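Single Protein Entry

Contents — chain, fold
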Amino acid sequence: MARYIGPVCRQCRREGVKLYLKGDKCYGDKCAFTKRAYAPGQHGQGQARKKVSEYGLQLREKQKTRRVYGILERQFRAYFEKADRQKGITGENLLILLERRLDNVVFRLGFANSRTQARQLVRHGHFTVDGHRVDIPSYMVKPGEVIQIAESSKESPLIKEIAEGLGHKTVAAWLEMSAQDMSGKVVRFPTREEIDTPIQEHLIVELYSR
């Protein structure tokens, strides 16, 4: 399955909840979900009255999670299988793995306005990890690693615009961010309580356990 490149607001409407895929734009009055909080398509408004099966709820939760983190089906399944092999609660392990992706950490640090933008910036080589340029969005960060905007990228108009707003950003407790150095550090892995993404991970576990 190819990566979705259509209007991202349709994804929010399909899932029936704001996924904040466009960053700051999702908080404004022009947000499409605010105006049309029903599924897209000719029969979208009528779908809200349909009763959803247990399988349907599980599937929608999995699809919603994939869309939040911008992950394809095969890759998402690989994350689940890895989480299932780890000690602890599978659902929580899954979310922690997704949070550890470099593109998500860049977004969490405030170096991008959305995960989509973060993924693009990482792919274009605008970030280093412990001084080494990394252009793989799925790179799994580890505690102690320092993520920094590459020196050659600091003159980019987009990077300058992002840097101007860093002083007003609040980052998660498992991360540290220095607006002055335009760098961030992974202090530790996040706990489930620190992951504010509205996901019911137990539904995903139930889906893959069928």
User: Anything to note?
Assistant: The mean pLDDT is 86.
